[in-house]
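Cross-check.
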Amino acid sequence: MDRGGFQSHEWKRVERLEAVWELAKRGLGSSGDVAGSGLDGAVTEPTRRSRTPLTPHQIDAIQTARDSGESVMSIARRFEVSRMTVWKKTRTR
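Predicted model, tokenized:
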């Protein structure tokens, strides 16, 4: 298979996904029987990560930090939210 311009870490992910796809086509992925296939940690049925809503106290802290001149990026990193979340919480006042 041609690497198609993927970097090394991206290519490994493509190969892993392809292997899981093949297991699923053969019916092995649904039973969870991936032992011996080298894909013991592979997720065959991914779920969406749940996101806990920000508390009013966290929103107030975000707004206070932004008012004091802290950058959107540093606030987003500190509260582990996206930049867009910080923008939305500081814009709607």
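Helices lie at 8-25, 56-67, 72-79, 83-91. The two ends are 53 Å apart (CA to CA). Passed to J.P. for a second look.
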